[in-house]
Amino acid sequence: MHPTVVERELELRLILSPERSVPVPARLSYCTDDPFAVHIAFHITSGHPVNWTFARELLVEGVFRPCGHGDVRVWPTKTEGHGVVLMALSSPDGDALLEAPAAQVSAWLERTLRVVPPGSEAGRLGIDAGLAELLAPLPADDLWLRDPWPSDESREGE
């Protein structure tokens, strides 16, 4: 089965101060091969985009209410009368506060949720089938299950 990829290019705003922000071209990506994660590539028009990966569930929840802690925090708000989603990203290289249009992020997330509904992600990973194959007995396993030492009840010379 071929993986399905759901992508959306959009312009985010990197918040530098309450009065100043700069546009940042970005690409949201979701792939059914990695059903729990969303991927965001920033500066996609440059030679060295910056990539972030985090839980799809975090972004879904962050559209409605503040969530996350540590490296990724997401929350909704309004700016100039428009709904936006703020993403605070922290790494050893620095911190960034990004603003995304809520309607565009929500529409993209809705597409990902149609492709892989919430709660069905684990079934896409094939873990159960992989474990069954890994743990399935092989004909050679019979040799390992036999007692490698003769019984103490046998007599010498027999």
Summarize the structure in words:
The chain is of the alpha+beta class. It has helices at 56-62, 102-115, 121-125, 127-135, 141-145; strands spanning 5-17, 20-31, 37-42, 50-55, 67-69, 72-79, 82-91, 94-101. An eight-stranded antiparallel beta sheet has the order 4-3-2-1-8-7-6-5, sandwiched between helices. The termini are far apart.
Topology, pairings included?
Layout: E1 5-17, E2 20-31, E3 37-42, E4 50-55, H1 56-62, E5 67-69, E6 72-79, E7 82-91, E8 94-101, H2 102-115, H3 121-125, H4 127-135, H5 141-145
Antiparallel strand pairs: 1-2, 1-8, 2-3, 3-4, 5-6, 6-7, 7-8
What labels describe this entry?
158 residues; 8-stranded antiparallel beta sheet; alpha+beta
Please state how the strands of the largest beta sheet are arranged side by side. Answer: 4-3-2-1-8-7-6-5
The coarse silhouette is elongated
Q: State the low-pLDDT regions, or none.
A: none
Order of helices and strands: EEEEHEEEEHHHH
In angstroms, what separates the terminal alpha carbons? Answer: 60 Å
Estimated share of beta-strand residues: 35-45%
Secondary-structure-based class equals alpha+beta
* Count of β-strands: 8
Helix tally?
5
Largest sheet: 8 strands, antiparallel
Helix content: 25-40%
Mean pLDDT: 86
Radius of gyration, Cα only, in angstroms?
A: 25 Å
